[in-house]
Design brief:
It is built from three helices and four strands. It has about 80 residues and is of the alpha+beta class.
Length: about 80
């Protein structure tokens, strides 16, 4: 299931983000990111566990993908 990410998933968010950069939790602090109205983070959940997410910044007429990550176990599944 895909839903907007909330602060309660900070542990899984940081675990997945670490795959992108070992300083991920410093660079993209979830609390700070969620407070900004132009940030959107959507997560994919399996059994109430975050297994991937996409972070998008939406400004006026453009959208930028900032981060996208999927747990190794769920990659290459078609």
């Amino acid at each position: 299931m895909i839903n907007k990410l909330s602060i309660e998933y900070i542990g899984d968010y940081e675990r997945l983000g670490y795959k992108l950069n070992e300083n991920f939790s410093y660079l993209f602090n979830l609390k700070d990111v969620l407070e900004k109205p132009y940030n959107y983070i959507y997560g994919y959940f399996e059994k109430d566990r975050l297994v991937g997410f996409i972070h998008i910044v939406l400004l006026v007429d453009e959208a930028d993908i900032i981060n996208i990550v999927v747990d190794d176990f769920y990659r290459r599944k078609g």
